[in-house]
């Protein structure tokens, strides 16, 4: 498989609730009550962290056998820092993450040397990690004004 286009749609519902659709799947994204939402789902920055951890996890599952790793369990703890004043327009700071930290947890009988090589491979082949670490062309393709009836 070569170049692939992935699509999703985010549709604002009541308040800050957003329904995201991708293929036949739906995900609710919302803000916590303290930020005006109804807390029906994770907020966008939590989803980004979750996607980053899920990407690493899927790469780990996909390539464990290649590295002779008997992966009994794998999970990623993630945390990120951002200044809400950027989002709220109160300051000229970036509205996005300034730092993201994560820790891999593995249950395996593999040696430390095997695990180090495996982790290096995971890091090098995670599409979300690559997207976060490198510049990507992001552009608004346009807008459509839907006429109210």
Defining traits:
149 residues, alpha+beta, two-stranded antiparallel ribbon, 4 helices, 5 strands, 30% helix, globular
Structure notes:
By secondary structure, this protein is of the alpha+beta class. The chain contains four helices and five strands, in the order βββαβαβαα. It has helices at residues 44-63, 84-87, 112-125, 127-133, and strands at residues 9-12, 18-22, 25-29, 73-82, 97-107. It has a three-stranded antiparallel sheet, with no helix packed on it. A two-stranded antiparallel ribbon has the order 4-5. The chain is globular, with a radius of gyration of 19 Å. The termini are far apart. The relative contact order is 0.13. The model has no long low-confidence stretch (mean pLDDT 95).
Helix content: 25-40%
* Morphology call: globular
Q: End-to-end distance, in Å?
A: 44 Å
Beta-strand content bin: 15-25%
SSE order in H/E notation? EEEHEHEHH
Mean of all residue-level pLDDT scores: 95
List the helices and strands and how they pair.
Elements: E1 9-12, E2 18-22, E3 25-29, H1 44-63, E4 73-82, H2 84-87, E5 97-107, H3 112-125, H4 127-133
Antiparallel strand pairs: 1-2, 2-3, 4-5
Helix pairs in contact: 1-3
Provide a brief overview of the structure.
The protein is an alpha+beta fold and 149 residues long. It contains 4 helices and 5 strands. A hairpin with a 5-residue loop joins strand 1 (9-12) and strand 2.
């Amino acid at each position: 498989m070569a170049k692939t286009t992935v699509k999703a749609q985010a549709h604002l519902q009541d308040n800050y609730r957003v329904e995201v659709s991708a293929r036949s799947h739906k995900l609710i994204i919302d803000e916590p009550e303290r930020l005006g939402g109804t807390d029906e789902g994770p907020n966008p920055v939590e989803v980004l962290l979750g996607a980053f951890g899920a990407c690493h996890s899927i790469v780990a599952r996909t390539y464990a056998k290649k590295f002779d790793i008997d992966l009994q369990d794998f999970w990623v703890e993630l945390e990120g820092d951002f200044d809400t004043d950027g989002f709220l327009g109160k300051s000229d700071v970036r509205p996005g993450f300034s730092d993201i930290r994560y820790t891999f947890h593995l249950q395996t009988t593999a040696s430390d040397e095997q695990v180090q090589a495996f982790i290096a491979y995971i890091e090098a082949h995670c599409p979300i990690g690559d997207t976060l670490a490198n510049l990507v062309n992001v552009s608004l393709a346009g807008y459509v004004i839907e006429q109210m009836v």
